[in-house]
Write a structure and sequence with these properties.
alpha+beta; globular; 29% helix; Alpha-Beta Plaits; single chain
């Protein structure tokens, strides 16, 4: 699946950790604070989210854009150390 990750990391140490994690998982920086990959499985994405959660604090924000997940765009965000998930389905 296609995955894009947008990061707003406050501390330099956390930013470096998150950048290294994203690169380790095969995501490439496209523009500042935006990383993409076209080939990531569900299990790998779950591990990536867990690792990102560990490397961030409550001041950081991270947004994951995943497509397709059952023909739906999924936006998952980590803000103030809380996860939220939104599904955007195509209107018929």
């Amino acid at each position: 699946m296609f995955v894009a990750v947008m990061c707003e990391i406050v501390s330099d140490d956390n930013r470096k950790d998150v950048e290294n994690i994203l690169k380790l998982y095969g995501l490439e920086m496209k523009v500042k604070n935006l990383y993409e990959t076209t080939s990531m499985g569900e299990k790998t994405l779950s591990r990536l989210k867990r690792d990102i959660d560990r490397a961030t604090d409550s001041y950081d924000s991270v947004f994951f854009y995943q497509f397709p997940v059952q023909e739906t765009l999924v936006i998952t965000s980590l803000e103030k150390k809380k996860w939220r998930r939104r599904l955007l389905q195509k209107e018929s």
